């Protein structure tokens, strides 16, 4: 019905409404999964209809939420990725629609194939532009940083130059939302991915390390943030001694004391302990830093970790 009349807005709107009526029916879910291309194409063709955009986004979110609940990965093809990008660009000023679209992008980017297709259609500059414009919107910042992480963390990344421009805006997100644990966690993950990809220059190491330490201090109870923050710091330290010295000499207090506190707070979390060990392992590569770590009795902490996780 929808495919027979692409150009008739009313047909597309009624079609989406009718499909939405099946959302609550569990037996309809496998069929709804096959409708994502029809929905996104209808949104692309009738991009000026705000009602259709909202209804289409709402339906896609329902389908994707069910897919995630059931552990089904939505591997969207390049055509669907292209339709979503077109809609993002057309509504780059509309905060409500963009917020929904960014959530959709975050949900689909969990699939490696979908992330690859989003990368192919060139969505990274658009994400950065959205972040700059809506830095105040915590929901958009959370979603966009999560998508950035998914796109940047891939090993076969050909977007080095594009990703390099992501550092200032990702840092700005973390700075703005330091006290919002959910957003800060997402931004720390994105910074970790950017560090892994070598997207920092010499002048970036110290301020980025200080910002990550601030995130750890502000959200000590969030185990995932602590883990990802420490992994990001470890990546920075691997690249430069400047980052290691920034941890030792941070103006807001010793980074080593912070590391100790974080372990004692999360002593039952193997992921946190592993990230802390990785960070310390990178730090001892530098003689001056290692001497400082000895004077701070870091071997005592290492012994505690060894006792806590003897079989890891």
UniProtKB/TrEMBL annotation:
* Keyword ATP-binding part of the UniProt annotation: yes
Q: What class of enzyme is it?
A: transferase
Query: Per its record, what are the GO molecular function terms?
Result: ATP binding; protein serine/threonine kinase activity
Give EC number(s), comma-separated.
2.7.11.1
User: What UniProt keywords apply to this chain's record, in alphabetical order?
Assistant: ATP-binding, Kinase, Nucleotide-binding, Serine/threonine-protein kinase, Transferase
Q: Which domain of life is it from?
A: Eukaryota
The reactions it catalyses are:
L-seryl-[protein] + ATP = O-phospho-L-seryl-[protein] + ADP + H(+); L-threonyl-[protein] + ATP = O-phospho-L-threonyl-[protein] + ADP + H(+)
Transferase in keyword set:
yes
Q: Where are the transmembrane segments?
A: none
Q: Return the protein name.
A: Serine/threonine kinase-like domain-containing protein STKLD1
- Give the organism the record lists: Peucedramus taeniatus (Olive warbler)
Organism lineage string: Eukaryota, Metazoa, Chordata, Craniata, Vertebrata
């Amino acid at each position: 019905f929808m495919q027979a009349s692409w150009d008739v807005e009313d047909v597309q709107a009624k079609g989406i409404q009718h499909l939405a009526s099946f959302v609550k029916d569990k037996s309809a879910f496998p069929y709804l999964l096959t409708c994502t291309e029809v929905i996104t194409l209808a949104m692309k063709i009738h991009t000026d209809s705000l009602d259709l955009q909202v209804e289409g986004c709402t339906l896609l979110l329902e389908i994707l939420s069910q897919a995630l609940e059931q552990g089904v990965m939505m591997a969207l093809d390049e055509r669907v990725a292209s339709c979503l990008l077109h809609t993002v660009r057309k509504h780059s000023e509309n905060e409500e629609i963009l917020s929904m679209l960014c959530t959709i992008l975050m949900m689909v980017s969990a699939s490696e194939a979908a992330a690859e297709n989003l990368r192919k259609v060139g969505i990274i500059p658009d994400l950065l532009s959205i972040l700059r414009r809506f830095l105040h919107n915590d929901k958009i910042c959370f979603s966009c940083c999560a998508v950035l992480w998914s796109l940047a963390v891939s090993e076969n990344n050909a977007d080095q130059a594009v990703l390099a421009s992501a550092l200032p805006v990702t840092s700005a997100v973390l700075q703005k939302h330091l006290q919002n644990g959910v957003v800060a966690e997402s931004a720390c993950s994105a910074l970790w991915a950017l560090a892994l990809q070598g997207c920092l220059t010499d002048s970036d190491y110290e301020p980025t390390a200080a910002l990550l330490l601030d995130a750890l201090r502000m959200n000590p109870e969030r185990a995932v943030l602590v883990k990802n923050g420490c992994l990001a710091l470890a990546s920075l330290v691997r690249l430069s001694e400047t980052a290691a010295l920034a941890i030792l000499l941070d103006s807001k207090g010793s980074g080593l004391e912070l590391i100790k506190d974080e372990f004692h707070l999360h002593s039952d979390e193997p992921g946190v302990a592993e990230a802390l060990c990785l960070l310390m392992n990178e730090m001892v590569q530098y003689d001056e830093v290692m001497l400082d770590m000895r004077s701070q009795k870091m071997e005592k902490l290492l012994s505690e970790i060894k006792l806590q996780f003897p079989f890891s």
